[in-house]
# Entry
Amino acid sequence: MQDILIMLLIYVGVCISLYQFYDVYCRQNMSDEEKRTDYEKQEFKELSLKARQYADTGAEAGFLSAAKRIFGSNLDYRIVLAALSRDPQTVSVETLIRRKRHIVTNGEVKIRHVFSWVTKPPVKDTRGLMLALVVAFSILVLFLGGWSVYTIGYEVSVPSLTWLNNNALIMSLIYMLILMTYVISRLDGYLHDIYRIGQLRMRPA
# Structure
């Protein structure tokens, strides 16, 4: 009974790992704009138009009040202006909403991480590396899952590899890889957001 439960958990783990790969791939290839509701599309389009008008003419035209309503009063409006007055936009409204608590503006754009640790944004996009790690972990999970089935009929006799005969250990490794993939996926989203924010150039105060 215990062996059946372990095999079931291994199967579930493999399914979770495949879903994680699919989820990370979709996150990297689906823009924030594609996920917007019709209301958000209209609201953010109007905000972008106001930002461009403000950048071109200096006419406020409701831009500052709209930015404050959407982002709150703690986010420097110059960040919003730098992001939305570009065509095409390099930083989405959603990115600024997600990371507004992390953005520090004191003459230049910086990022406040956990424990109030402040650094400059990364200068290189690590998205490709993160996806490669997720792919590697997913392949490893598939290998371990397949190996657990193989050991039902056969056993590894090489002394240094006999641990591969232990399905409970294989199951533990699979879920450890799932946890690592989850951490990487969260880190990928965070690093990519602050990398893009770091590309913004604010107007002088």
Observations:
- Residues 33-123 form one domain.
- The CA atoms of residues 46 and 180 lie 40 Å apart.
- The chain has a mean pLDDT of 89.
